[in-house]
Amino acid sequence: MEKLTEKIHSRRMSAVLNIQSTLLNSMCSFLYSRGFTQLMPVILSPITDPLCHSVLDAKIDYCGQELQLTKSMILHKQVAVSSPHLEKIFVLSPNVRLEKPECGPLGKYLIEFSQLDIEMRGAKKRDFMLLAEEMVKGAVGRVLEERKCEIELLGREKLSISQSQFPVYESKEARQDFGEGFESVLSQREKTPFWITDFAREFYDKEDEGRRGYYHNYDLFYPEGFGEALSGAERDFEYGVLKRKLSERGQKEEHFAPYMELARKGKLCASAGGGIGVERLVRWVCGLEHIREASPFAKVPGERFLL
Ligand code: ASN
After folding, report:
1. 74 lines ligand 1 (CB under 6 A)
2. Is pTM beyond 0.85 here?
3. Residue to substitute in 117, 195, 279, 281 for testing ligand 1 pocket (most ligand atoms within 8 angstroms of CB)
4. What is the DSSP string of 163-220?
């Protein structure tokens, strides 16, 4: 307990949290200025993101109904922007992903984290990538201007942000050029945040109609080896397509029943979006060795939690 209070009471922790406040303030203000509507987070729901990697279940029984802790609000975001009155939304969304204990030492996983999750009806890949770049550049710019003391205290003087367009790599080409570990190779090499596009992934990410296996999605990565920042995509929304993709992945339609019911009735629509992990952004901006340092109550996979 003493070690934990020492961390929470340290000047270093308050510097990290002040930088986090500036980042969130900048990103939320930017989204408001672009006409986005903020939603409150969903914590429990009969349906959630199946993710593309396996984690332990986080379910509870409430009065005979099975509810899951939110892994991401992707399905809720799609439902929300299907309203004719909600074109652009965002939500600061707590996510619980019970990652395997082996992930703990990797330094980038928490079993409870937050993402700033965004969705835009009718948007395309390019619209979202431009929006996210401007948002990230603005937020880091604000930290550089307003948090000089904190940056000095954390020894992060080399933080900078390029105002030119972030480089874009296609995942297939990057795999050919840099091998299986292309994400970390590029993250070590690059000097600025960069995109990797077209990953074969979850059923809701849009697959090209003419080119099976080609997806209209994008991940943002940080330089200096800090790894993944944001993941997002254009979305599939038509019932037949979603049904086929669920069955290709061995996932049961009934696990997504209310969402699939809306799709079947033609109530979902085209959109694009993505979510940026708050603690990972803070880790990169502050130059923190391990993501545990980005949160006073960090829950690292495989560890015992006090608070
Ligand atoms: N937030 C992501 C998205 O919008 C989904 C995720 O976090 N798994 O695509």
Report:
1. yes
2. yes
3. 117
4. -SPPPEEEHHHHHHHH-TTHHHHHHHH-SS-EEEE-----TTBPBPSSSTT-B-EEEE
